[in-house]
Each structure stands twice: as C-alpha cells, then as structure tokens.
Design goal:
- Helix content is 27%, strand content 23%.
- The protein is an alpha/beta fold.
- The chain has a domain of 177 residues: Vaccinia Virus protein VP39 (Rossmann fold, 3-Layer(aba) Sandwich).
- Strands 3-2-1-4-5-10-9 form a seven-stranded mixed β-sheet, with helices on both faces. Strands 6-7-8 form a three-stranded antiparallel β-sheet.
Length: 255
Amino acid sequence: MAVDFTAHNIRLDDGSFTIGSEAGRFEEHAWLQATKRLLATLYPSGRDQIRIADLGCLEGGYAVEFARMGFSVLGLEVRESNMEACRYVKSKTDLPLLEFVKDDAWNIAQYGEFDVMFCCGLFYHIDRPREFLKLLSNVTRQTLILQTHFSAGVVKNDKFKLSPMEKHEGLPGQWYQEYASQKELNDRESAKWASWDNYRSFWIQREALLGEIKSVGFDLVFEQFDSLGADIADQMLSGRYVEERRGTFVGIKSA
C-alpha cells in the first residue's frame, strides 16, 4: 500500500526520497539545520545516551535526522495516517535508536524523562499552553526546543484571523480557531494541520512565552534566530517572521 507524504521529503537509506528527488529535501530545511547545530553544540559526544522526544512528529522527518546524529529518539504522533508514514520511514532506515509511538502529546509523561524535548508545529495547537509547558518541564532533564507561532498583538489583514488580545491561564495572547463545528472535529484524522481535540488554540504573546519558559524551570532562555535562514534581518523586518509570527524558542536547565 502506498504511503502518502505531504510535508517531510525524507532521504531513505537506498537514496530515494519519500516525496521525490525533485522536491525540497527535508535534510536541507533551515529549521532542521538550526536544530542540528544546537544539538551538536550541546551534545558533542555520548549521544546514544541522550533521549530526545519529538512531539507531534508528523511524518518523522526530524526524528529520523536526530537519530542519524546518534541520539536515542522517540517520535510521538496521534494521527494514524501520519503514523503510517513514520512506520514506513522506520522500515526504510537502519536506525535502531529510533522509535515511533501513536499517542497524544499530553501523555508524554508515560514514556519517562527526556534530555531534550523537541516540539515543532504542535505548541500553537494547544488550548492550555501554560499547563502544557509545565508538563514538558516535568519530564525534560535539560533542553526544550519550541518551534511555534506566537501572538504579536492585533495586526492588519491577519491571515490567521486571531481573536482580540486577552488573558488565558494568566498569560496574554490570542485565540486561533481550529474547528468551526462538531462535524469538522469529527473529521480530525484527515485535518493534518489542525489540533487533535480542542476547537481553538491559544497563542501566547512572544515576550510572555519567553518569560513562561523560564518560569516553568528553564533558567537559560533564548530565541534561536538562525532558524530563519540566511537573511535573518530581512525575515525579521518584513519576511515570514513578521507574516507568520513563528520562531524557535529554547529553554535550558543549566544546573
């Protein structure tokens, strides 16, 4: 049975790609390259003893590349269609330290503690982000990497149609509508770019997000701008960083 890949064009061990050799290769993606630089700096050796969780791993691209670096990786994904892709990739790569499980990200504590918690494309689909950050801190020994949208206040011609600014869980931000009806929620398996079980999600204001990462236990907090690619200034002033309101946020427990 053919497996449909929609986002991660992963290089397999035989040299083929999950989407095709002519499409953009996942291993060249700026977000991945930036994360690999960060991980290589923090963990130059003994990587087989370092556990990484990839929350909402989609089709497994990040998990595969981290395992290729020598890390022990658990990819967690809730949608069966995505899990089919993950299983396919696992069968086509010789990576004994790579594992995929089908589960909700809220259940991550069932899988023990991790040295690195990687969360790309998931956090902005959460309706209780403060509670979720506390959960992640409780099961993360050292490093949290959040690649996520954030709130930057009300903007003109907002492509995401966010709500007015308000406070939720004591934090400023805006609501994003995930589903408009029960019927849409019932079809969530096919809605790959939406939340799993909540009608709307809360995007925390950027500054408050940085502060909250520290509040939950990560004393070294920063935003990793090299994930924006070669033209950091252009991206921050008028490019996708401004349009998408999306960045890479890192928290480290230094002690």
